Amino acid sequence: MNKVIYEDDFDLSEINSLEELQNMAGNCARCGLRGGCSGVVFGEGNPEARLMLIGEGPGADEDRLGRPFVGKAGQLLDKILAAVGLERFKHVFIANVVKCRPPGNRAPRPNEAESCLPWLYRQIELISPRIIVLLGGTALQNLVEPDARITIMRGKWLVSKSGIKIMPTYHPAALLRDTSKKRPVWEDFQKVRDEYLKL
Ligand code: URA
After folding, report:
1. Which of 34, 61, 71, 82 is deepest in the core (most CB within 10 A)?
2. Tell me, what is one Gene Ontology molecular-function annotation carried by this entry (predicted)?
């Protein structure tokens, strides 16, 4: 975890509630993505969750509904959570690296991710999770290390400077493309659940 504190003159440290942060983020136009999307997908779940999941960015379904992970990948994510006894609105808070849909479902560009990350960092500070699951390479590269490979890093615990345990795993959309990734993700979420039960 190198990029634990995001250095930016965009200071959100005075924003002390998730609701206020969400209202402010709704008016964000720090990068070009806002012009091409329907709205800001802030994230959802239990605002006091001890477990946070971080994906890449909204897709078409998420953009339309204003909620994270509600398309096919999201439905699979809910099943994975259920398989280890976790529920979206009870045990987790789900957010993304970028809060506006990149056109054509492309990965966010570095400048888009950098513009958006202060929102995510403040979300993390306000929710104060004990565990974060990074879903896929984009989350891993933007939150941990730009050159990190999800194939190498998945399944291994990392710890942030502030003591948050971090588990990188494959993005659920990758499982839809390649079913051989199901078992490793299942194993990673079992580790997460075991750690969660120790909290
Ligand atoms: N993929 C993501 O990374 N995030 C979503 O919210 C939906 C699909």
Report:
1. 71
2. uracil DNA N-glycosylase activity
